Amino acid sequence: MISFAVICMLVLCSSAWKIWKQQTSLSDDFVNWNQRGLTEESGGAVAVNFYTAQVTAPALLASRLFLLGPISLLRARDHWHRRLPNDEASERRLCDKLLELQKIAKWQGLADHPGEEISIFQLAQMGLIDFSTKPSVRFKAKQLWHSCPYPLS
Description:
Elements (H helix, E strand, L loop, with lengths): L1 H20 L7 H7 L8 H11 L2 H26 L5 H17 L3 E2 L7 H10 L2 E4 L5 E4 L12
Helix pairs in contact: 1-4, 5-6
């Protein structure tokens, strides 16, 4: 009995890993069928209806509920690794860079700020600067109604 439970957990975790790596959600099944060009004229609607009718509602609900736990844990791990450092030195560094970019108030490239790439990417992650990668990496500080609590050093 324990080996069956272990096998079920491994299957669930591997399925959740696959869904998480593809960056899809559990509700994308209908969208995937539509993207394949299955229409009533091509007989695709009949095929979708046939395969969908074979899955009972309790089985579909159970599979979604059991997959939700591992997927949520993987997403939480991603959010944890992407968090910004929460210390005064980092906050001061980001605030100084934001005030500097606000004073310049024009589109710039990373070459204009050598060694400050991490700060610029962190400001973009916080949504404090407009960031574009086309045609090259460019950014511009948003003019905000509030300012940083630290003076420009």
